[in-house]
Design goal:
single chain; about 180 residues; alpha+beta; Peroxidase, domain 1; 2 domains; four-stranded mixed beta sheet; 8 helices; 4 strands; elongated
């Protein structure tokens, strides 16, 4: 979907500039997340692809499908997307916006896969150990992956730290073959 990312980038950058100027990065991220969730629904996708509806109709109907409350400036942004036929790329816009926001705030998302459930204290300690290495504030997204056998696997951007038992066994197998 590289084409969608190319289409979404200028919209994400425009939304980021508006949010930064208004000091509302978190509010914009939340609103774009809600709109992206709505745009990902199969019924909404079908509505957006309906050639019998005008762009104004699509924008209005789309906004009624967005869960929760969003501010007028977010509604205006959605209407611009509707007029340009770009509501379908909202998931990419939201993702790119979060990347811009994280870069601006010197933060990143750490995707942590663990073989076993982790309590909040353990996650906090792990993040405290990782933040100096990455030189930024990290936000944890934890998921369970029993195939790791034990330990954790952490991905921040393109960098992956595999401290899982499965990863260590794979490294050992590779070393033994060489």
């Amino acid at each position: 979907m590289a084409e969608n990312v190319t289409i979404a980038r200028p919209y994400a950058e425009a939304a980021f500039q508006l949010a930064k100027e208004g000091g509302a990065l978190a509010a914009w991220a939340d609103a774009l997340g809600l709109m992206a969730a709505a745009a990902s629904e199969p019924e909404v996708k079908q509505l957006l692809a309906d050639p019998t509806r005008t762009s104004t109709d699509r924008g209005f109907l789309f906004l009624t499908a967005v869960p929760g409350e969003i501010a007028d400036e977010h509604r205006s942004f959605a209407r611009v997307l509707a007029q340009n036929g770009r509501l379908g790329v909202l998931p990419e816009i939201a993702e790119l916006f979060v990347e811009l926001k994280n870069e601006h705030e010197s933060s990143a998302v750490a995707h942590i896969s663990s073989a076993f459930p982790m309590d909040d204290a353990t996650v906090s300690r792990l993040l405290a150990d990782l933040e100096p290495r990455f030189g930024r504030r990290l936000e944890a997204r934890v998921s369970l992956d029993p195939e790791l056998i034990g330990g954790v696997k952490v991905a921040v951007g393109d960098e992956v730290i595999d401290a899982s038992v499965r990863g260590k066994l794979a490294a050992m197998a590779t070393a033994l073959k060489n």
